[in-house]
Task: structure prediction
Amino acid sequence: MSEYAIGVDLGGTNLRAAAIDRSGELIAKISGETHLSAGRDHVIGDLVRNVVALRAQLGEGGLVGVGIGVPGFIELAKGMIVGSHNLPGFDNFPVRDDISRRLGLPVILENDANAAALGEFWMGAGKDVDDLVLLTLGTGIGGGIISHGKILHGFVGMAGELGHLTVVPNGNPCGCGNRGCLEKHASATAIETMAKLVALGDNLTAKQVYDLAVDGNHLAIRVFESMGSALGIGLATLVNVFNYPLYLLSGGALPAWEFFAPAMFAEVSARSFTFRNTKTRIEKAVLGNEAGLYGAAHLPFQIRAT
Amino acid sequence: MSEYAIGVDLGGTNLRAAAIDRSGELIAKISGETHLSAGRDHVIGDLVRNVVALRAQLGEGGLVGVGIGVPGFIELAKGMIVGSHNLPGFDNFPVRDDISRRLGLPVILENDANAAALGEFWMGAGKDVDDLVLLTLGTGIGGGIISHGKILHGFVGMAGELGHLTVVPNGNPCGCGNRGCLEKHASATAIETMAKLVALGDNLTAKQVYDLAVDGNHLAIRVFESMGSALGIGLATLVNVFNYPLYLLSGGALPAWEFFAPAMFAEVSARSFTFRNTKTRIEKAVLGNEAGLYGAAHLPFQIRAT
Result:
């Protein structure tokens, strides 16, 4: 039996788990919903059942470990989520230790965007570099930084909160206490807010705004250009800070690339000497929403290797 | 004879060199001016003479290596400065190899703010941490990032250009092509520009604006508050990106700490969830303008050790 690890992506909407072997092949996967309304204990029970089911299917002997990606700020040492809006009830609860106790296995807890960045580094668009930055463009915006092949954590585990880069100092208020956070100007939520502001429609989803842009609606296109500019301001800062070779974008907004990317590149180019003078790449991530599963599964392999 | 390294700080105004031993003791130092008007060759000649003089004084046998800190973007692989406004004539010139050839010694070229950050890490305010960020507040603003005890370089060597963080998207134009760079809103030059804008005086130096603030002049105090706010926006972004334990400020603006720091802390606190919820420290650097000498001298020791 070859060695494998189990990666879990515990999101506010979906709960998924995958068994992935050392070569990066996905062997088995379980996908379901996160039943938040049933409470934290129920959700953790579902998660544990998924892991146990995969282990039963593939054999206990080959299991190297379990990695779990979760939204929110992480306190690594405590294995806790702090300030997560997407997993109410998990705040300041010792989620890592609770899951570990129920499984009888060590568990690695990680921020979901960090896990996605590691997944892209391991098996996705970042396979050819040592260092990269990933932005996940969804309801909010997450970030992950890979430095010399490892997640950059900072001293508590909260590094890479790139959705909270200030891109408009007096911009839209954010739940984190800041104003003008990148995620208030470039996420799906921001698209919907902007659609309202330009009187495109009161209750349009980001997908509907995208469809209007595809139809040639100038206001909808302007909304995506504004999103692209905000992304460009944030990316220019990241390029100037890190001078990494690769910056990846992932998430539900990627199909709108043709509408936001030109403004994004124009902004980064205007704002970053380093971008203009080096072969810095800003590209689409390639693993879609499986990046987090790959990254979470890679964590136990990385720990075993060091 | 104990081992020592020679650190050089080649600035637009001053040219200094110091011999420092492995324990971090400064054994000998030569300070002089950078005679830019005499041309690049003359400046390099002065630099080489200083290194040779220190080596003659202390003995060839113990010399581990030579590190040189210079302003501007660095191409590490080529050992060249690109886009330096402070050392005209050095742009795209193979300065590292030229000095190395004249000395008959290997030479390490480094950005001056990176060197200062490494100096503070080795012998200054960062002795108790593994990771830190330094901002040098002078005519411009430089930055250096220490990650696991080493300078974060990026793939070309241009990482840590923190003076070019965008803090005001439609702010003052910068030589780098951007608008609203941190250094256009929080450097000595920015202080002087703001003094003009608030009609404090047309040709005041930053020092004179500081003296007015000390005298209780409200406009002068407002100028430093504005500087503090800009710093706070930049620092909040850095805290959210890195979650490092320590952010240091150095440079000529430090005496004005009492005037800019309250606005800076208020801004960081409002803008960074991580700052409010962790024991992140923002403090004064302690080595003054010797930090760069210590850092430059530490480089050969670090290379020898790995």
